[in-house]
Amino acid sequence: MTVDQPVETAPSGPKIPPVFGRAPAWKSNLLLFGLLISVALLYFFWQAQSAHRAFLSYAREHSRMIAGVIELNARGALLSQEAVEKVLGLFLSNTARFVDYLDTVEPFSNSELTEFAYENGLAGIRIGRGDGRISEGPPDWFPESADRVCRAPDGVLRHLPSRYLHYLDWPRTEGPGCVTVGLTSVEIDTLQDRIGIDRLLESLTGLTGIRYVRMEANTADETTGPPGVNPAAVVFQEDAGEKIAEIRRPVGANLLVVGLEAGPLFSRTRQLWEEFLLFCGLLGSLGLFFSWLLYRYQSAYIARIQSVERELAREREDAVLGRSAAAIAHEIRNPLNAIGMGLQRLGMEAEGLGEEDRAMVTTMLQALKRADSIIDNIRLYARPLKPRFRPVRLGRMFRDSLALYQGRFAAQAIHMEIDIPTDAPVAGDPHLLEQVAENLIKNALEAQPEGGFLRIQMEQHQANGVLHIENSGFALPPEDAGRITEPYFTTKTRGTGLGLAIVHRIVQAHRGRLDISVPRPKVLRVTISVPLHGKAEKGDHADTHR
Q1: Cα atoms found within 13 Å of the Cα of residue 292, Cβ hemisphere only
Q2: Residue 227 shares a structural domain with residue 161
Q3: Residue numbers of the domain that contains 324
Q4: What end-to-end distance do the CA atoms of the chain give, in Å?
Q5: Which of 112, 86, 89, 111 minimizes the C-alpha distance to 169?
Q6: Residue 238 and residue 114 share a domain
């Protein structure tokens, strides 16, 4: 049977006036913001169009500039190629004249031609005389048959790419015949390939922002460009789902085609519109918000009264909930203990349990142990701290606590360094300070599962004992280091976030100070400063700890 409990009602106050009776105030506000949104939308639309036109203009100028650079480089490559061929032609023609002159003075033999060719770095020399005789050295250097006699003694440089050979036929000055001079062109072909149009286009295609560069046949003259195409125009098109800006410019007898990535243009335009719409939405939200403020202002005095009453009720509820939490934690521990003992007995006495069932029992016991630890932390954090001050040697206390975890430090390959040259007693509660030591040591162990170090230093600074604890494995940015003392803040998957918060409360209860810093990357330093014994306020002093 249930009994209805009396419901506490808020004290009656003045009657709330009809807020909709003053509708013109918030309606005028909405109208004003609607007008502002319209003006802003028109302005942003104009800005977006202006930015779009400016970006298109920039893209055209940028495309023409790149095309101009490519054109200049292409012309330079063509000129370089022509210059190389001119130099080769001049060198071979002068050599042919000189050979013709020497042969006129005294005819060359084949061996002499071979020696002369080697000395001058030539691939070979062939002299065709009017009587049909041919002198050649070295033998078979020329790919054509040996009976070839000067078919075209015009002095034009010719190239045989398959044989890496440049040669020319030079007419003799006295009588019929010709002198054929050849030069190996491996290095020259390599040079021309490096400065050639194909290599230039290939390198330009790999530049940022350039999708492709190619040469096409130009069916129109050099000034007007191909039929129906304006050489200064930029054509936007899609290639494999991407926006491309294409420009065409005549270069000599060919047409240079440059494709630029136009995706950033359209992305920027879309982003600009998104920002404009976001601004309009924000402005509209502000209009609604201020209209709501005006609406609420009509009954503000009643709202303030109700707010004070709610705050008082919340404080009473918080006090009740705090006491309830302590009672619930106490009541929960009893069934947890019973469950734990039952599971232990089940694990020891049940003969029919298999390995999987025993593993499950062990897992449940570990979960119960963790739940019990969480309850302890919550109770310790929630209850008021009233230290019973005694002289405590803080350094010795940390040494004793570290001895209990020696095996775990060794198992996790954590190197310990302890430097406590002075250990003057501080004024503190031994049991609470032991909790500080245990939480800091556990925090260092849990932060370094794969090894690291723990360094503890003790010093005396004026009237305080100062303890520095450093360990590696700190994963947060330095600016977030101070948050680790906040309640329930943790980076662990199985942590409650109360360990360092409890340490902070205990240090504050001892009229001390706790500082968090990151002296080096991934290294956490916790500094605890507690007043020395005899320097703090007198309390309940008894026997010295340890």
Answers
A1: 6
A2: yes
A3: 305-381
A4: 59
A5: 89
A6: yes
In the predicted structure, residue 256 carries a pLDDT above the cut 80: no
Q: Give per-residue pLDDT as tens, 459-502.
A: 988 889 999 999 998 888 888 777 777 766 666 655 556 678 78
Same domain membership, residue 354 and residue 238: no
CATH number, position 504: 3.30.565.10
pTM above 0.70, yes or no: no
Q: Report pLDDT digits (tens) over 58-85.
A: 666 766 676 676 677 767 777 877 888 8
User: Are residues 185 and 68 both part of a single domain?
Assistant: yes
Which residue is associated with the tokens 């009809």? 18
- For 171, the token pair is 């007419």
Largest CA distance in the chain: 142
Which of 382, 380, 341 has the alpha carbon at shortest distance from 364? 341
Residue 298 near residue 24, CB atoms below 8 Å? no
Q: Which long-range contacts (CB under 8 A, 24 or more apart) does 265-274 make?
A: 265/55, 265/56, 265/59, 268/51, 268/55, 269/48, 269/51, 269/52, 269/55, 272/47, 272/48, 272/51, 273/48
Q: Tell me how many helices (H) and strands (E) the chain has.
A: 11, 16
Edge-to-edge, what's the strand order for the sheet holding 414-419? Answer: 414-419, 452-461, 464-472, 523-531, 513-520
Average pLDDT over residues 20-38: 66
Proportion of the chain in helix, strand, coil states, percent, rounded to 5: 50, 20, 30
C-alpha span between 451 and 50 (Å, rounded)? 61
Hunting for tokens 């209990």 — which residue is that? 404
